[in-house]
Design a protein that fits this description.
Helices cover 83% and strands 0% of the residues. The chain is mainly alpha-helical. Helix 1 packs antiparallel against helix 2 and helix 2 packs antiparallel against helix 3.
């Protein structure tokens, strides 16, 4: 049986093909992050616009518990999605910088931002599953 070499103990070598894939990853991540931030801003803006329109039209009648909860939920969802997209954008920018300058600290920070984005996505997914479980049980 052949023994595998310990790649974590050795310095990793990044050839041109890996650099190309990392560059493509950073470009696509930047694009997705910008679309995500735009989507979050547009959704939050539309929610605030509709809130103001309903307050003008119906006054105090618009403030029941269901309506208030829906507005708060939509605003929080927009804010959370914006922050996740911001971490993804930071990942893309730092990864592009690291590839251009071969700066190890930028490369490390890029992957920290990537980890934070997916950690937040995981937390949001768990909260969503818990809400679905509560709705399914009740």
């Amino acid at each position: 049986m052949e023994q595998q070499e310990d790649i974590l103990g050795n310095d990793w070598r990044v050839d041109d093909e890996v650099k190309y894939y990392l560059h493509q990853t950073s470009v696509l991540a930047k694009y997705v992050a910008m679309l995500g931030m735009l989507f979050a801003l547009l959704t939050t803006g539309k929610t605030l616009y509709n809130l103001i329109r309903l307050i003008i039209r119906y006054g105090d009648f618009a403030f029941n518990a269901y309506f208030f909860g829906a507005i708060i939920g939509a605003l929080l969802a927009g804010a959370v999605y914006f922050v996740i997209s911001l971490f993804t954008h930071r990942f893309a920018v730092k990864l592009q910088l690291a590839l251009k300058t071969t700066d190890q600290s930028s490369f490390y920070v890029a992957w920290q931002q990537f980890k934070m984005a997916y950690r937040m996505k995981g937390i949001v997914f768990i909260i969503y599953l818990l809400f679905m479980l509560v709705i399914f049980i009740s």
